[in-house]
Amino acid sequence: MKTIDIIERIEGEAKLSLTWRNDRVSDASIDFLNFRGFEYILENKPILDALVYTPRICGICGQAHLLATVNALENLYKNIGIELEITNKAKILRELGLIIEIIDSHIKWFYMFIMPDVISQSKKDYTGGYTPLKGEKWLEAQKVASDTIKALAIYAGQWPHTSYMVPGGVVSDPTLLDIVTCENYLDQTLKYFEKSIAGISIDNYLSLKKYDEIDILSSSLGDFCQIAFETKLEQIGKSHNRHIVLANMFGLESGIHKHRISRKIDLDKIIEHDEFTFKKNKKNDKKAHTWSKSVQYNEEFYEVGPLSRAIINKREFIKEIHKKYDDSVFTRVMARVDEIAHLLVYSKKLIKQINISEESYIKPKIDIKNIDEAIATSVVEACRGSLIHTVGIKKGKIIKYDVITPTVWNLGPKHKKELGIAQKAIIGSKSLEEAKIILRSFDVCSVCTTH
Fold first, then answer.
1. Distances in whole angstroms, Cα of residue 284 to Cα of each of 148, 280, 281, 400
2. Surface-to-core class of residue 166, CB atoms within 10 Å of its CB (0-12 exposed, 13-18 middle, 19+ buried)
3. Of 167, 164, 145, whose CA–CA distance to 154 is shortest?
4. What pLDDT is attached to residue 158?
5. What angle do CA 12, 41, 171 make, to 5 degrees?
6. How many domains does the chain contain in total?
7. Is there a domain that residue 155 lies in?
8. Does residue 40 sit within a domain?
9. In sequence order, what are the residues at sequence separation of 6 or more whose Cβ sits closer than 8 angstroms to the Cβ of residue 227?
10. CATH number of the domain that 213 lies in?
11. From the centroid of its chain, how far is CA 367?
12. Model pLDDT, residue 9
């Protein structure tokens, strides 16, 4: 028996095809069918046009794409022996913008994707608080997320699709009032985390060390934990339990976790595969079923995202939960909500370091359009995990642009005999509803995947 279901309430759509045997999912396919083609659109465009195009790959994580683009363009200079001067102020405003976007995304994901599905599986009635468009907690989360993103729009000019980062810095010059207003918005979000998400102070939350301290949590995270153990979310959604983080950001280190943590990463070992991927000029490929490619590191699949960042950076609370429950749905959700607290505290530290008297932008000595030929790669940590941009240019034009998104890492199809991350996690599910919850624990983004 085969089930095909269109998964909505995500950025774009995904088709989940399930094959059943003995009342369990025996095979799963996650298909992305809405091709967008940004990589092709960028070919032969002027180099700086990428700063306008790539933030529009996604309406949720445009900051990540923008930062990946500007880093790649600056790496073009570096690869021809020219080191650009970027002020600390510009670096902070860039990183802060991405952090704010991630916090906004994490809140929306938890309340709008995860909780409505999770409460539907519980015998207890939680619907009054988390019902989409009606529930008190759902509406509060939407308002807080909207207010949080205003902290970015203050100095970035707009959100989404901002383009304030350019090679050499940023083209915004926030005043002291702007910085204070930005900080006030983040303070409100921090208070919201304490009151409505964790139910305890941020200091008490960050002092949690052991998995059994989960009982201290209340409010929405407490609700999630109760439902999770009631519905056994700590037992489902387990995959290869291999993790990778590609960028050093937010005070975190890159690294790879298989049986142990290693800090040595070779980007040349990252390979994309397209054996099950539709091709623009190949119409009759019977194996193809999705526009998504798959990506492996050293010929193996690795999960990316907040759980991977927590494991590789040894965040004690999530590390202990992971030690007991592996890479389950429960662990994955807890890691992403946990990251909200860490990013809020880190963002406040960043704001305190901004010196508004510094330059926002220092013009490169050579116009990027005068670089004859070069290729460069950049990596950043987006809300869903590691993001890679590679750009090749010649005589002022883009000759190649390649994007590898977190959703490709986590939800791409299998390669040869090895199952993809989410595919392996879903196989063994007892119901369509359970399979959907597992899928959403990775936070599907169709439009990023079919860029």
1. 47, 11, 9, 25
2. buried
3. 164
4. 85
5. 85
6. 1
7. yes
8. no
9. 118, 119, 121, 122, 124, 126, 233
10. 1.10.645.10
11. 32
12. 63
User: Residue 310: what residue type?
Assistant: A
Residue 169 structural domain = 85-237+329-363
Q: What pLDDT is stored for residue 11 in this prediction?
A: 64
pLDDT (average), residues 153-182: 94
Mean pLDDT for 77-103 is 97
pTM of the model: 0.95
> Mind listing the pLDDT tens digit for each residue in 255-313?
999 989 999 999 999 999 999 998 877 777 888 999 999 999 999 999 999 999 999 99
Other residues' Cβ atoms within 10 Å of the Cβ of residue 144:
23
Q: Per the domain annotation, does 69 fall within a domain?
A: no
Per-residue pLDDT at 450 exceeds 80: no
12 confidence band (pLDDT: 50, 70, 90) = low
Length of the chain: 451
Cα–Cα distance, 240 to 218 (Å, whole number): 31
* CA distances for 334 relative to 4, 90, 92, 195, 343, angstroms: 29, 32, 27, 17, 14
* Beta-bridge mates of residue 20: 25
Residues facing 244 on adjacent strands: 256
Q: What is the pLDDT of residue 214?
A: 95
pLDDT digits (tens, 9 = 90+) for 300-334: 999 999 999 999 999 999 999 999 999 999 999 99
Note if the bond before 160 is cis, omega within 30 degrees: yes
Structure tokens at 421: 């991350």
Does 195 reside within a domain?
A: yes
Q: How far apart are alpha carbons 71 and 90 in whole angstroms? A: 12
Contact 102, 383 (CB under 8 A): yes
Mean pLDDT of the chain: 94
The least confident of 28-37, 212-221, 359-368 is 28-37
What are the tokens at 163? 């383009």
* Residues 202 and 190 sit within 8 Å (Cβ to Cβ): yes
